[in-house]
Amino acid sequence: MKLVEVKNLEAGYNRLPVIHDLSFELGHGEFLAVCGPNGSGKSTLIKALQRLTPLVRGTVRLEDKSLFRLKPREIAARLAYVPQVSEPVFDFTVGETVAMGRYVHQINKLAGESDRDRWQIEEAMKLTGITALRNKRLSQLSGGERQRVLLARALAQETPVLLLDEPSSHLDINFQLQIYHLLRDLQLEKKKTILVAEHNLNLCIPYCQRLIFLKEGRIEAAGSPREVISREIIRRVFDLEVELRENSSSGLPEISFIHSVGRPESKHEPKIADRS
Amino acid sequence: MSSRRKHWLFPAMLAFLTLTAFLLSIKIGAVRISWEETWAGLFSGGQYKDIIIHLRLPRAILAYLVGASLALSGAILQGYFRNPLADPFILGVSSGASLGAVLSLELGLTWTVFGFSSQSWLAFLTSLLLVASVYLISESRSLRQGESLLLTGIAAGAMASALTSFLLFRRADAYEQAIFWLLGSFSLSSWKEVWLILPYFLLALVISEYFSPEMNLLALGDEVAQSLGCPVKTTRRLFLFLATLLASFSVAVAGIIGFVGLIVPHSVRLLVGPDHRPLFLYSALTGGTMLILCDLVARTAFAPSEIPIGVITAALGAPFFIYLLNRQRRKSS
């Protein structure tokens, strides 16, 4: 049984589909990255899997149940979502925010927090390294800390699948790497299945097992990083001329940018001499 | 201040303030009554029993209930719209109610049903009707629902206000009576109003408390709320219904009293944090206390004549509102 099965998915807003005829599967413990240019439908795909977009058509099955037959609570018990970090309107504390991940399991609200709730909240904060921040308000945190709080909330949800929408945006390179390290730990040690929408290819290549390239809402290429990272595919997807190298420590492909396709090389473009 | 100390300090101060407000509003008034006589009037009789039991006590309780209802309604709508500057009248309850009341004066209606005047009824019904139409119009739009609801509410409110002004312009003699609705007053309070609003207020408070975890999720935005398992649409409908009825009942018994529903939840949030479970309860309790005190000022500051209570709440509320706006601007820049 696949955890997520998508066939001929069409999704978008206001009757205008952003995603067309998209099919893929996600099995237990997989790490899948969805990449593509801005507006290619990465975020829309992640939202459509949870029925958060107004338009979702096609077949989406979560653990063999049709997405369209599931209530929000049942979807939230299967998929946890880490949205992009945004400015909080109401300034909840870190502890309160993480505890909201338990809502899905609190059927009897009069019973209050159970021991399991408390344990999961502690565990989620420990895994993401935010235990010491518990009583801080979100507005007092840096972007990297907020990202970890959102991840902790998703972990407290106790789902087999984690969906992350551009987890590295707004983070400096150190935090970007930390988040991906953490995701890999979760995948290997906690057997989580992970789907990230990511625009930073070099960042996700070493971590994901499979990569899907989206362009204008359709799958342009899919496979392992070694299979799909090629100059030809990147030119097709991003209209970008690149050079590929082998990363000296991982042996995986790495991308250096040259220039946009269809645009003559500018005289102001950095040359090797400039970089010294 | 440590958070533990804060936990008991605010409720303790509030309890003290509420008790003081109640006692003062029962003792002080046009007729001078000593503390002993007040005590006797409350519990054993005496010559001032009628004034205390049938005038001052229901008035204080009604002011408390209306203040609590408006503050709870404001707390709900601020979470609903994810906007700390929302208030109970944002969807046109107030403009709808004044239109209804003025319409009833214009048509010369004088009937009463269940002891309530035609003005009360028309104010209540038109305010509900206005919000219902605002809701239905905004449902059919493609804009984000909250945003669309807000904008439609403002437009519909402006239209109702224009109609009200037109009616008042045609019938200048109705103006004095209309002032009751436009600025609010407890001068006609009796036990009847108390019994009308009390059961609904208690019910609304219990339901809001029960669904406060859902409101916490809604405050994160619809998408995030739903992804965490919250049934967004039904929860939104429920809270909109609760908040609108709270405001409509308040307007029907006391006219339009502004600013309580805006400043109380906002200030309480600064003290207890954004979690809606304590926020709903303490907003209601604080709103009630605040309105008893405002009513006390309204009827004693220029005794024997009474100032409309809306004047007092606005006079206190407007500077606070400007302070809030500045604070928000500073925070966002």
What report would you give on this structure?
- By secondary structure, chain A is of the alpha/beta class.
- Chain A has a six-stranded mixed β-sheet with strand order 6-7-8-3-9-10. A four-stranded antiparallel β-sheet of chain A has the order 2-1-4-5, with helices on one face.
- In chain A, strand 7, helix 6 and strand 8 form a beta-alpha-beta unit.
- In chain A, helix 4 runs antiparallel to helix 5.
- The longest helix of chain A has 17 residues.
- Chain B is mostly helical.
- Chain B has one domain: ABC transporter involved in vitamin B12 uptake, BtuC, CATH 1.10.3470.10.
- Chain B is globular and about 65 Å long.
- Classes of the chains: A alpha/beta (276), B mainly alpha (333).
- The interface between A and B is medium-sized, with 30 and 26 residues.
- What pattern of helices and strands is seen along the backbone of chain A? EEEHEEHEHHHEHEHEEHHEEH
Biggest interface, chains and residue tallies? A-B, 30 and 26 residues
What topology, given as strand order, has the largest sheet of chain B?
Answer: 1-2
User: How much strand content do the residues of chain A show?
Assistant: 25-35%
Number of strands of chain B: 2
pLDDT below 50 for ≥5 consecutive residues: which ranges of chain A? none
Q: Rg of chain B, please?
A: 20 Å
Give the CA-based shape of chain A: globular
> How many individual helices of chain A?
10
Short structural summary:
With 276 residues, chain A is of the alpha/beta class. Chain A has ten helices and twelve strands.
